[in-house]
Design goal:
80% helix, DUF4345 domain-containing protein, 143 residues, transmembrane, single chain, globular
Length: 143
């Protein structure tokens, strides 16, 4: 994209991607930490052993909040944005492949998992687009 309007759109396209993901990961992390039983039940997880709750809180609580903080840092410090785009794209590839494997070989397809798989594909494409396009923008455009 070489037009001024295109550069302006890309400037915000990447920042919206980072901010939106920071909100998603913060929401998941806080939901898991503040309401672990309800949050786990909403996604079909039960705590059958004493080790289950700490593992759930570490993954869905602490790790998701840490990702949100990293994305906020990338939002504030431009030099980390390309790495954030690449890391998020890789994370969503991992989510999507894990979900696809489970749907194909373990649980079968359902509306919830298909919706999340579709969203993961969208997030991969969006992140890779931001990663690819960010190298062409002048530094003053904030990508």
């Amino acid at each position: 994209m070489t037009t001024v309007g295109g550069e302006l759109a890309l400037r915000y396209f990447g920042r919206i991607y980072l901010a939106g993901n920071a909100l998603i990961f913060a929401f998941v992390g806080l939901g898991a930490l503040l309401y672990p039983q309800a949050f786990a039940a909403a996604i079909g997880i039960t705590f059958n052993t004493s080790a289950a709750m700490p593992e759930f809180l570490a993954t869905y609580g602490g790790f998701m909040l840490a990702i949100a903080v990293v994305l906020l840092i990338a939002q504030a410090l431009r030099r980390y944005r390309r790495v954030a785009y690449a890391a998020l794209s890789m994370a969503y590839i991992g989510f999507g492949l894990g979900r696809l494997y489970a749907m194909l070989f373990i649980s079968g397809f359902d509306e919830r998992n298909l919706l999340f798989f579709f969203l993961e594909v969208v997030m991969v494409v969006w992140g890779l687009f931001c990663y690819r396009e960010s190298r062409w923008l002048p530094l003053q455009h904030g990508h």
